[in-house]
Amino acid sequence: MTINKQDQSFDKFADKFEKNIYGSTKGRLRHELLVHHLRDYTSADVMPLNVLDAGGGTGVMTELLLNLGHRVTLSDISNEALALAKQKLGNNSNLDIQHIDILSLNSEKKYDLVVCHAVLEWLQDPFKVITKLVSLVKPGGHLSLSFFNYDAQLFGNMLYGNFDYVEQGMRSKNIVRLSPNNPQKPKEILAQLETLPIQVRKKAGVRCFHDYLKQPEKQTSEYEQLKQLEIEYGSTEPYLWLGKYFLIIAQKEF
Q1: Which DSSP helix (H) or strand (E) runs through 159?
Q2: pLDDT tens-digit map of 206-221
Q3: Residue 221 phi, psi dihedral angles, 5° rounding
Q4: Residues 61-67: contacts with CB within 8 Å, 24+ apart?
Q5: CATH class as words, domain 14-252
Q6: 0.85 surpassed by pTM
Q7: Are 205 and 147 in contact (CB under 8 A)?
Q8: How far apart are CA 21 and CA 133, in angstroms?
Q9: What is the pLDDT at residue 9?
Q10: How far apart are CA 81 and CA 154, in angstroms?
Q11: Closest C-alpha among 176, 185, 205, 193 to residue 251
Q12: What is the sign, positive or negative, of the torsion defined by CA atoms of 56, 57, 63, 64?
């Protein structure tokens, strides 16, 4: 077992993270939009896949994939997050849980689908990790990356009037453990993928409108209508670039 001490681990506050994120419309909508965009690659009609949920934390996406009949390897550097995942997922012959960082995953094993959601923004060297993830995808298989969007973070802070924070490079003296410390620029991630043996098949913004509502109560009271509009516009210009998270689905070259 190898753990990269430089990357953000959720040990000591995994339970708080789970409740804060997935107990809110932010977390619910993010998850449901990711599920929507991945459905063509993970539906029950697809042959059972070998899937890697890299940095999968408490197993929210892993649970969905297992329920669809796929075989899943769930990895994370947080032992506490994986303990919560074990409680949630129970004993399942299709599940392999590994307490390990992404760069230390077995390079010999290849997967039909590699999922890495909301991980890059917590890493010291996300570009190196992306190269590793691509290497773990079988020829013809797919990689799903989603990450906290630096450009949307800047846009949102400008809307909220946080001008000093923006001028300081959006770096705070006070570390907030549940706030991503290394948000990524979508076009930089896309540029890196162009140098690797993988082709982008889909781009989408996740929460393009939700976080900017002038009436936040509508996040709850009109959730379903908001979700449908997120689905309708999230993959189209210019709205996809405004998503608080950005999603890329790419296919490994044969």
Answers
A1: helix 150-159
A2: 999 999 999 999 999 9
A3: -70, -30
A4: 61/31, 61/34, 61/115, 61/117, 62/89, 62/95, 63/88, 63/89, 64/35, 65/115, 66/92, 66/94, 66/95
A5: alpha beta
A6: yes
A7: no
A8: 25
A9: 61
A10: 29
A11: 193
A12: negative
